[in-house]
Fold each of these.
Amino acid sequence: MIAIYPGSFDPPTNGHLDLIERGGNIFDELIVAILRNTEKSPLFSLGERRTMLESMTGEFRNVRVDTFDGLMVDYAARVKAKAVLRGIRAISDYEYELQMALMNRKLRPELETVFMMPAEQYSYLSSRLVREVAQLGGSIKGLVPEMVEQRLKEKLDPAIKLENARKLKAGKRV
Ligand code: PNS
């Protein structure tokens, strides 16, 4: 069975990775689907998020990364997914997830939402908090893969930002 794991992944965290691994263990194919949302202004570009997720999931043979816009249920139909995977961390997630799952069921009854719990050490983790802590100079070690930590540092450190801007101006790769 094909399942999709949709989200913003701005940035992807170890909580996402934990869920991808669990999902990959029960579905034949898992598609990590990044929302191409033009309204929100994300910290990481779509390309950056895709690259990070591809490198995080490269070792999982039955996992691939894709992007989508429009209704999630329409995307699921296009890729022939029968299930959508979502993570539930705490009761506070439940109300929003229930609402979304039931709306999606109304739109496409044959698509089933499957909830999984991440490992408890990630139960408080969210992309929003990772962004906030990193932006304010706190440590996010162990909460995101090292490559994401590095990318966040590069994005937020003014000295590295300046250096990258100089390199780009000079036509060099950053
Ligand atoms: O990472 P997030 O923000 O929790 O993911 C939310 C996401 C991408 C799953 C949700 O916003 C979504 O599916 N958006 C696509 C548009 C859509 O189908 N909206 C109706 C949802 S009931």
Amino acid sequence: MNQILLNGNMIKRRSCIDIEDRGYQFGDGIYEVVGIYGGKLFLMDEHLQRLKRSARELSIKLPFTMADIKQDLIELTKVNDVIEGLLYLQITRGVAPRTHELPVEKVEPMVVAYTKELGDLTELQDMGSTAILQEDIRWLRCDVKTLNLLPNTMAKQRAVEQGAVEAILNRGEVVTEASSSNVFIIKDGIVYTHPANNFILNGITRQKVIQILQELNILVKEVPYTVTDLLSADEVFITATKLDVVPINSVDGHDIGTGKPGMMTIQILEAMRQLTARLQVQ
Ligand code: PMP
């Protein structure tokens, strides 16, 4: 079955967006992508907390309680019988006559969610992939997960054209994150990742990996690092929902370390796999 959730109702997927939906016209909306493992939504509470924060930052009043939306999303995953995949949830401010300023009259946010099956990512995680570098041309509120993703899609397109899995973004000398993932580097046994401020999206996977590192007694420093640090790192990996941990073997054609997934990255990937495997046997 391919059902979607539209404003609280399960309906058959169809496309019907009012042309004056502010999400459609301005990208005035927020979203979350939640991983599904063994039919279970992974880290859903964390995703919903981030959604709540994004809504607050954009003054969008969420038209549901956390408990209700959670119930609906679990139901949607069940109805669509997705075992391995992801769930996309989007809330736009709603429909109002087009003006740049926020509508004076009350608008009803538009809530949409759908699920998607995903193929096996084991090989990508085991083999690693390549990345390119791109200047980070995004705005200064990358901490809000909004629908405005054009700089991200453009950067990713360049990566794909060059056979790479990701575009790692640099603001001048500083590496921030990647077009749709967070970036970690390892040097002399210490893991570095950009601090969670307005220059990056604080990935849910990023936060889980930091927690795993702490549990493994591996030192992790949330500090800005440079393009030179990236290129001379022993290991580099990216994190994102459902990708989990993907080793980066080369950046712009420069080998990272041995040019193969490093030992620490593999250790972190395995720890993440154990965590998601536990969901599947619950
Ligand atoms: N940064 C950006 C710009 C992203 O789009 C994403 C994925 N949505 C991430 C980081 C990773 O976040 P998460 O681990 O929550 O998927």
